[in-house]
Write a structure and sequence with these properties.
single chain, globular, 8 strands, Jelly Rolls, 4-stranded antiparallel β-sheet, alpha+beta, about 160 residues, 4 helices
């Protein structure tokens, strides 16, 4: 739950784009321990977390899945619905009871055609989330399996 401000929905989307997106939302909840999706499964929806914590994990051959990041309030859960082949790149599990807004991917992608500015805003937001999660995955995997850890304090090019 250390995501930069630009990945939280209220800071990433302008009020009119938040309003457009939330028109298609439905409230859902998941009990502690629920698996929301599995790596490789069909990505046909996404969520914005309203309360609780969800862990993202990555399968590592011969080892237990590695927790990449923990997500919380106002964070986007799931971006694979936006990019083909629409298969989950990670898995997700509720660490605590979770409340969220759930969105079906197809209607949201349809809104992109009707409102290109909305589509661009959501795509840029998702791109920021993907970039952040890629960095988190790299850092976490190096911490777990690298000979000297992530080198997080080192300067990056």
């Amino acid at each position: 739950m250390n995501a930069p401000a630009s990945t939280s929905m209220p800071r990433a989307l302008a009020p009119e784009h938040r309003s457009t997106l939330l028109k298609t939302a439905r409230e859902v909840s998941f009990p502690e321990g629920a698996r929301l999706f599995e790596e490789g499964g069909r990505a046909d929806r996404f969520w914005i977390i309203r309360g609780g914590v969800v862990d993202l994990h990555l399968r590592v051959p011969g080892r237990r899945p590695a927790v990449i990041e923990s997500l919380g309030h106002d964070e986007l859960l799931g971006w694979s619905w936006l990019f083909g082949p629409h298969a989950w790149r990670l898995g997700a599990r509720a660490v605590t009871p979770v409340r969220a807004w759930e969105f079906d991917a197809e209607p949201v992608r349809g809104q992109f055609r009707d409102d290109p500015a909305f589509g661009l805003a959501v795509a840029l937001w998702a791109g920021e989330v993907v970039a952040h999660r890629l960095h988190a995955a790299r850092t976490r995997l190096l911490d777990l399996y690298g000979p000297y850890g992530s080198g997080a304090d080192d300067d990056e090019a």
